[in-house]
Amino acid sequence: MVVPFFPPMAGGGVYRPLSFVRYLPANGWRVTVVTPRGDAFWIRDESLLAAVPAGTRVIRTDSWSGQALLRRGGGAGQSRSSARFGLLRPARTANGYQPT
Question: What does the alpha-carbon distance between residue 94 and residue 11 come to, in Å, rounded to a whole number?
Fold first, then answer.
């Protein structure tokens, strides 16, 4: 699976892929998840890691998310509403992202 949100990230986008990962092995699937590192998203829930089956292969990649860039630039305590995060917002439209 290639998913943008996976534990220890939290939020609404985590639960569907986590459910697939939990139940596919019972149906004969070996699951590999490719997902960004845990610092790519601002909502975390470390307890969700306990729900990932032991045999699941998880490949963590670098991310260009605003939160990940803030953390790499020394802004670990910054929030999405911070001035530094605001500087990253124009980059999303430069890459073709159009908020709805």
Answer: 26
Q: Where are the domains of the chain?
A: 1-62, 64-100
Residue 66's closest CA among 99, 42, 98, 31?
42
Are 36 and 61 spatial neighbours (Cβ–Cβ below 8 Å)? yes
pTM score: 0.64
Taking the C-alpha atoms of residue 53 and residue 28, their distance in angstroms, rounded to an integer, is: 14
CB 24, CB 31: distance < 8 Å: yes
Q: Are 31 and 1 in contact (CB under 8 A)?
A: yes
The per-residue pLDDT for range 63-100, each reduced to its tens digit, is 776 666 666 665 545 445 555 555 555 655 555 555 55
CA max distance for the chain? 48
